[in-house]
Each structure stands twice: as C-alpha cells, then as structure tokens.
Amino acid sequence: MPIVTGTLAVQAFAQPALDLGDGAQAGAMRFDKRFHGALDASSVVHMLSAGNPASGSAAYVAIERISGALDGRSGSFMLWHRGILNRGQSTLDIGIVPDSGSGALSGIQGQMSIRVDAGGDHYSLDYTL
What's the mean pLDDT in 54-59? Predict the structure, then answer.
C-alpha cells in the first residue's frame, strides 16, 4: 500500500448547534482544509460533536470530501472520521468511504492519520487504487 505524507492547513467555522431533544445539543463545525505534498488537494469537512468538558470526554463524527491530485492522479474521494476523547485519552480513526472515489481516484481504498504538533498539522495516507 503506498503511503503519502505531507502538511495541511485548516480553517474552522462554527455552525449552529443541532437539537438532540430535552435541551441537549450537538456541536457542529465546518472545516476547510488545504493538503500539501503528494496529496495536493482541498477539502470540506462537516463535523458533529458531543461531550462533557468537565470530565474531558467527548466524541465526534465527520464526513470529508477531498478533491485534487494524489500522486499526480486527479479526482476526489470522501473520508469518514470517528474521534473519541475518554477522560483525556484520545483515539482517532479516519477511513476512505468505500466506492467514493471519482476520476483517476476511482476505486481508492485506505485510511488516513492526522498528527498535530508544534510544527503544524501533518497527514499520512495509506491507500490502494
């Protein structure tokens, strides 16, 4: 499976909260991303989240559409996100939505990881075509 890495820039935009009934709400965000490196692309992400700030626990789910070029192949594909923060311990799973690839990225499969550190935001994408 090829693995490509690079950096990304992220802009965040708060969206109206969603009513979950009985006064409970899910947070909603939109993120616009720009990927640099072997993945030369932009994306739009829509995220829903819920949590308990007092305990340091939360969860989010998101769908992301990436459009651009991957190793010189033009097209688009979608990712699903699942993030859990359990009393400060985090896990993050990101995968390519099956059969979501288009253009020269038709048939793409795989998973992505994201790392944030003092040097910025970094991605790693393991994929097959």
Answer: 91
